[in-house]
């Protein structure tokens, strides 16, 4: 008796059963053999599938390792020449190579500003690349939200004062201790408050923190120009300031909100904006008070597979 | 005059640091890789060391560990100057025995301020 092992698209093999006496096999035996054959097909397919998955995940791990090394190298290779450009420029501005004619000093200042802008771009692009590659790992630890907010306030207050803006921090008393990546959270808040100060010419910037349903709710409200409804999704994309001609005037890399969105989402939170043209904008970050396990492996595999 | 050893393989960076330090009244000693850096440190006994991390041969971490094993240099201030500005790098330089950390691109003014923390 020969029973073929029939796979989805081809015959994978056969089971052969022999006996010493002449005559047909009993039907029960044939059925048993057929059942055995179909189970064998499944077993073989599963074994192949498992091996394929094992190979694939090893490839992904390698690709991920390569990406990580590539990013580290690129970071070094991009910064080294920029270091020379910014370094020499600053020494010249500081007069270490002698006094400069006023026009040359003015041009040097432009070189310096462009160099700094390029550096900010490189940092942001590398951050984004790290996130996309699943290489940006979170450092989860306990933190006090009021400390985070205050550090952001002290970093941005002087900018707001210089523009004559009123700066308000509303931290609800008795907030619970948070658990998450406080440094990334500060980065997000700095970006939001920095934007608010940058785009607001008069009025106020308010930063608020409260706790609700197991989440921190952080708001950054400004009395700036506001954002039209059709632009409100776009601003979280890469290189998408509402008015690109503004980029030069207002500075910034156009990557801040894209990075902020990813950093918040990595911690299981959301970021959104409410705004009306002429009425200012309110950015809202909702973040779990306790950020627990992060699906790091998934992110890595997804990153490597792209 | 306080003497500063700069261990740095990139010529431009050596010149920038050199121009900065000589204008600020320090004497400069140079080494272009890790091994030369360790040997120069032992011979010259500088007052402070600026240590690049990515160096040919032995890297800045290893050079720092070796310098720390030289009794006379166990406490000389070592400032790591590195473009490995990724999270965890600063901790790694401290583990290797560096006292301070400056990420490139740095502002020469900031670097000088950092040096003055250790050489008032």
Strands, helices and their partners?
The complex is a heterodimer of chains A (306) and B (120).
Chain A: E1 2-6, E2 11-16, H1 27-93, H2 102-132, E3 141-143, H3 145-162, E4 166-171, E5 178-180, H4 182-199, E6 204-212, E7 215-222, H5 246-250, H6 256-266, E8 270-275, E9 281-288, H7 296-305
Parallel strand pairs in A: 4-6
Antiparallel strand pairs in A: 1-2, 3-5, 6-7, 7-9, 8-9
Helix pairs in contact in A: 1-2, 1-7, 2-6, 3-4, 4-6
Chain B: E1 3-7, H1 11-23, E2 27-31, H2 34-44, E3 48-52, H3 60-68, E4 78-82, H4 89-96, E5 100-103, H5 108-118
Parallel strand pairs in B: 1-2, 1-3, 3-4, 4-5
pLDDT below 50 for ≥5 consecutive residues: which ranges of chain B? Answer: none
What's the overall average pLDDT of chain A, rounded?
Answer: 83
Kindly state the number of beta strands of chain B: 5
N to C succession of SSEs of chain A: EEHHEHEEHEEHHEEH
Q: Give the number of helices of chain A.
A: 7
Widest sheet: strand ordering of chain A: 4-6-7-9-8
How many distinct helices of chain B?
5
Q: What is the approximate shape of chain B?
A: globular
**Largest two-chain interface:** A-B, 20 and 19 residues
Helix coverage percent of residues of chain B? Answer: 40-55%
């Amino acid at each position: 008796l020969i029973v073929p092992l029939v796979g989805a698209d081809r015959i994978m093999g056969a089971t052969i059963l022999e006996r010493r006496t002449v005559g047909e096999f009993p039907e029960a035996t044939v059925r048993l053999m057929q059942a055995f054959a179909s189970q064998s097909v499944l077993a073989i397919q599963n074994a192949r599938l498992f091996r394929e998955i094992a190979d694939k995940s090893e490839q992904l791990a390698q690709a991920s390792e390569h990406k990580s090394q590539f990013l580290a190298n690129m970071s070094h290779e991009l910064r080294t020449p920029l270091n020379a450009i910014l370094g020499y420029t600053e020494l010249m501005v500081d007069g270490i190579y002698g006094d400069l004619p006023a026009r040359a000093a003015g041009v040097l200042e432009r070189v310096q500003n462009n160099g700094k802008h390029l550096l900010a771009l490189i940092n942001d692009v590398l951050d984004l690349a790290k996130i996309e590659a699943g290489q940006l790992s979170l450092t989860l630890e306990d933190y006090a939200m009021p400390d985070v907010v205050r550090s952001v306030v002290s970093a941005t207050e002087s900018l707001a004062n210089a523009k004559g803006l009123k700066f308000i921090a509303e931290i609800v008393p008795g907030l619970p201790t948070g658990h998450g990546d406080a440094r990334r959270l500060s980065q997000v808040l700095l970006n939001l408050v920095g934007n608010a100060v940058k785009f607001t010419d008069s009025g106020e910037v308010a930063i608020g923190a409260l706790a609700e349903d197991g989440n921190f709710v952080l708001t950054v409200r400004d009395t700036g120009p506001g954002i039209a409804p059709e632009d409100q999704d776009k601003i979280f994309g890469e290189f998408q300031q509402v008015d690109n001609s503004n980029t030069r005037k207002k500075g910034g890399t156009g990557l801040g909100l894209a990075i902020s969105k990813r950093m918040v989402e990595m911690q299981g939170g959301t970021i959104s904006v409410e705004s009306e043209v002429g009425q200012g904008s309110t950015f809202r970050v909702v973040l779990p008070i306790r950020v627990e396990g992060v699906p790091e492996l998934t992110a890595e595999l997804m990153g490597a597979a792209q | 005059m306080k003497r500063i050893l700069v261990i740095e393989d990139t010529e431009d960076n050596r010149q920038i640091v050199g121009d900065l330090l000589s204008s600020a009244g320090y004497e400069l000693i140079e080494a272009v890789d890790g091994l030369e850096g360790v040997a120069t440190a032992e011979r010259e006994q500088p007052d402070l060391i600026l240590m690049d991390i990515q160096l040919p041969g032995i890297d800045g971490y290893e050079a720092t560990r070796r310098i720390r094993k030289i009794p006379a240099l166990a406490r000389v201030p070592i400032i790591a100057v590195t473009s490995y500005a990724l999270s965890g790098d600063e901790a790694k330089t401290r583990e290797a025995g560096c006292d301070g950390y400056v990420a490139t691109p740095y502002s020469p003014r900031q670097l000088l301020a950092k040096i003055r923390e250790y050489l008032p």
